[in-house]
Write a structure and sequence with these properties.
It is a single chain. The protein has helices at residues 2-19, 23-39, 44-83. The chain has three helices and no strands. The model has no long low-confidence stretch (mean pLDDT 83). The longest helix is centred in the C-terminal third of the chain and has 40 residues, at 44-83. Helices cover 79% and strands 0% of the residues. Helix 1 packs parallel to helix 3 and helix 2 runs antiparallel to helix 3. By secondary structure, the chain is mostly helical. The protein is elongated, with a radius of gyration of 22 Å.
């Protein structure tokens, strides 16, 4: 039972650590995890741990990409509003 508790504690710490990674760090580590899984030669236990780490890293990358997409969408909407003389703009003096 203690081994299970250790795994749960390690997984929670690993997830917290992963959430503080930048996109490039998470992506690079994910690439390494995939490489190790594809190479084989690991025990089932090691493979499962790598898979779990890969899932955590993929979530981190997804959050970064979703955040970037939201920022890009907001910037594009702002640009479109400015082009139409949207609310909050001073306009071009015509009116």
């Amino acid at each position: 039972m203690a081994k299970t508790d250790q795994k749960a504690t390690k997984a929670a710490g690993s997830a917290a650590e992963a959430s503080t990674l930048g996109y490039e760090q998470a992506r690079d580590e994910l690439v390494e995890v995939v490489r190790r899984l594809e190479a084989g030669g690991t025990t089932l236990e090691e493979s499962l741990a790598l898979w779990e780490r890969g899932e955590e890293l993929a979530k981190v990358c997804r959050r970064w990409l979703e955040g970037a997409r939201a920022r890009l969408d907001a910037a594009l909407a702002e640009t479109a509003d400015a082009g139409r003389g949207g609310a909050g703009d001073e306009g071009d003096g015509e009116g």
